[in-house]
Protein: Antitoxin
Amino acid sequence: MNSPSITVHPGQMGGAPSTRGLRIPVATVAAMVADGLTLDEIVEAYPDLEREDIREALRHVAESVREGELPPRDAP
Structure:
């Protein structure tokens, strides 16, 4: 997985993948989408983000699952 807009810095956000070095974790962006927020609502909440940053964060999560880095949860 190689996305220049997704960065990991051990001393920032506990090493969690973030968007463009901002202190906005990919997991936060993905959770907002999962909660039903639109791209515009997310950008309104985090004005430093761009719509493409959100798409890239979702691609990162999808690729992480594909590569087994984020195993899917067991079904209830």
The chain has a mean pLDDT of 88.
